[in-house]
Amino acid sequence: MVIVVEATGLDNVQVLPLETTHRLTLTNDLLKKRVLYRYALPTSTVEYKVKINNCSTKMLSEKSVLKPTSPTVNSTASAIDQSSEPSKLAQTSPPVPKANTSEHLVANDFENSSNYSYSSTVQSNETDSDNARYNPDNETKSLQSSSFTQKSSMIKNLATSTTDMCPVIAVMRSSALPNVQSATLSDCGNQTECEKRLLSPSVDGWTYITIAIDDSYNVSEISFDLSFETKECESLKIFIPRTIFHPADTNRTSLRPAQDKCIRMTSLGRFVWEERTFNITYVLNDNTGFPNPLPLRNLVIEDHVVMLTSFTVQSPADLGGTLLLHASLNLQAFTIKNQTVTVYMCVMRNALPGGETVRSCETGIAMVLNFTAPEDTVYIPYPEPGTWFISFNSECYSNDTKLPTTCSMLPMVDVDLVISGCVEGQCGDYGVCQDYISGVHVFSSCKCYAGWRGYGCTDGTEGRTKGEELVAMLLLTLSNLFFLPSIVLALYRRYFVEALVYTFTMFFSTFYHACDTSDIVYYCMVKYDILSFADFLGSISSFWVTMLVMSKIPPRVRSFAQTLGVLLVAVGTEYDRHGLLVFAVPSGLAAVVMFGSWIFQCRRQRKLYPTRRYYLIHLLPGVILALTGLVLFAFLETQNNYKYVHSCWHMCMSLSIVFLLPQRPTDKGNGSVFENDTDSDELILVTDENPRESINGS
């Protein structure tokens, strides 16, 4: 079995011309109870009305249900169906008698009713006697009488009444199918005419309207007229910034403030200052025909009409920027002392904010300028593409009566309308504006520093000041000076390789944190990646060489192990300097070498190695400091306390070297680094050869 599904898109929806009146009919069935249409509004439409009138409604006087006249129809039909003898069925099913012409017209309309009447008649005849003989004359008379009774009853139940009510529901929505949140015309149930007024509709694309019968009324059929009434904005081909409608000799006192008239000026032009992303300024088009863009300065705002202009946001060039609209009222130009003025502005996309919308601006972006707040700024991040409209209107108030009055002098407004990256190309003092590419789209975004957040890095709820950032940098850099005691002690005890590694670590850790700590207060001596690599290499190498020098191994083996370890650490640091293995593997391997050599010496000398004094005075404090630093680094360090905890880590690890570093090695070159740890056999041998040398060596 093959099932074919036919998909009907919105392009197949019937179009309703707005210029004509449409006569529509809805019936109370599944397919004709609800209809969908579409229509296109003129591009200068400020408002329009949807009207429904001349309704003609057919309503059921009683709830009609087709039922047999006798409750035994079902049983009769069952008896006939269950009969297995064709001859008997033929005897109990006489031919239908002929009726006159008028009776045939009614029967055609109520075919089901005549069938039910026939079944009822058969049943009544059969119930008289099971053995009764069939009489055609009696059957015909009975059938005609029953049919006439049933038909008369059905005609009475289906009698219709015509009223002037309009029980319909109309739902309108622009560019999409209507839903529960769309504009609805639903109060037509007890009215002969009803209408819905829609302010500032979308003029981009189609508007869809769904019309259905109101289920709260018992309606079988309704016919009505659907019409539209549009109000458009008058268009001008030029935009004269000074005064458009009133010359200097116009008597302003004879004009009354109103918003029912709309004047649409020519669209604004685009001016690109330089070839870079998001650097567009909208300007006035000069009426001379030459490319002479005029800034939006000293725009005269009328009070008796709504002035309206438009501009275009292109896709995808303008989508990743920020649309800035700044307006300021020119207070110096308004010299009337006995009046105050208020300027209303409304910005909407794909809709003309004329008429009453310029002041309410419920679905747009409203701006109000007056003597108290003469300036206002609106930022629209990542504006949607399309045509945007800006409307202007003013209203003056008398200082004496505090009531609206005709403006003796029209106010002037300066407007800045630009598209820039981020917030006017900047992100405040705690961020930087960067451009990002995603597919074919380029968009700008602020990268905030020092805990500042927000679209323009202006939310300082968790932000830090420049002073706090300077303190953090000084803590992390100066805490590395605690390596100086370890360096001096290593030089004093002739551990020159170790002293060099400690100096290397202190130097690069200091300048790494000077470059990495803050994006506001920083100093990068070389590239950041070089400083980061050197810092991690020095830190891990310090662990490696310190634990090797604590081991009881020959000097040549120690020198080879130090060189090999530094090379492997360099490779590991370049591979993943923030990984756990690059720290754990060198430290673990050095610990195995150190404790292995100590255990070997304990078994060989049959006594504690190194001495108990070293365990108590040197090893125990050094291990406590090192473990404290590791705990702080691994478990307590967070982004908020980084400058304090990491500074303590620097101090703990550098001071632990002072305690862990062994005594000065002997001159014999036998790898003995702890005091009083010389083997007894070597002591006897040295004593036999040269007692003075043995005393000096000890």
TrEMBL record:
InterPro entries: EGF, NGX6/PGAP6/MYMK
Keyword set, alphabetical order: Cell membrane, Disulfide bond, EGF-like domain, Membrane, Transmembrane, Transmembrane helix
Signal peptide: none
Residues annotated as transmembrane: 470-492, 520-545, 581-602, 614-636
Principal subcellular localisation of the protein: membrane
Renumbered residue ranges of the record's region Disordered: 63-101, 114-148
Pfam families from the UniProt entry: DUF3522
S-S pairs: C448-C457
Keyword match Transmembrane: yes
One term under GO cellular component: plasma membrane
Subcellular location: Cell membrane
Domain spans labelled EGF-like: 418-458
Topological relation to the membrane, as annotated: Multi-pass membrane protein
Positions with biased composition (Polar residues): 67-101
Family per record: Belongs to the TMEM8 family.
PANTHER family membership: FIVE-SPAN TRANSMEMBRANE PROTEIN M83, TRANSMEMBRANE PROTEIN-LIKE PROTEIN
Annotated protein name in UniProt: EGF-like domain-containing protein
Species in which this protein is naturally found: Dreissena polymorpha (Zebra mussel)
